[in-house]
Amino acid sequence: MALLMLRDEQVLAQVSPLMDNLMQGSTDIDHARHTQDFTDRLKAIVTQERLVAMCTDYQRRWGKFGRREFVALFRRRDSVAVVWRQWCSPSDDELVAEAVFVEQQGRVLVDHAMVY
């Protein structure tokens, strides 16, 4: 996996735009945008209906996603996990945003993501 051979900064340069897109798709409750960089496995889990339910719930509780700050990167045998500190508006609460990235057919994709 070529992603595993990169320095942290290089990995972040590749995965951050995917996370930005995922988070904006979630904020906008836009299923196509939210899932565009997902593996087929994750796309099967995050249906349109499930996304609407998840986003409606978290936006009611936390607000909408705002800035995100890198915390840590973990290399695994065939994936990279990244953890960020996440803020939502209008709350000052600090949340955890994490995602697991894999390479499939030469493309970096999101195979798991969660905010808590």
Unreliably modeled segments? none
Strand content: 35-45%
The CATH topology corresponds to Nuclear Transport Factor 2, Chain: A
How would a textbook summarize the main sheet? 4 strands, antiparallel
Number of helices: 4
Organism: Ferrimonas sediminum
Protein name: SnoaL-like domain-containing protein
Verbal overview:
There is one protein chain. This protein is of the alpha+beta class and 116 residues long. It has a single domain, classed as Nuclear Transport Factor 2, Chain: A, CATH 3.10.450.50. It has four helices and four strands. The longest helix has 20 residues, at 8-27. The relative contact order is 0.20. It comes from Ferrimonas sediminum. This is SnoaL-like domain-containing protein.
Question: What order do the helices and strands come in, and which of them pair?
Answer:
Layout (H helix, E strand, L loop, with lengths): L7 H20 L3 H5 L4 H6 L2 H14 L1 E13 L4 E11 L4 E10 L2 E9 L1
Antiparallel strand pairs: 1-2, 2-3, 3-4
Organism: Ferrimonas sediminum
Protein name: SnoaL-like domain-containing protein
Keywords:
single chain; 116 residues; alpha+beta; Nuclear Transport Factor 2, Chain: A; four-stranded antiparallel beta sheet; 4 helices; 4 strands; 39% helix; globular
Brief sketch in words of this structure:
The chain is an alpha+beta fold. It has helices at 8-27, 31-35, 40-45, 48-61, and strands at residues 63-75, 80-90, 95-104, 107-115. It has one domain: Nuclear Transport Factor 2, Chain: A (Roll).
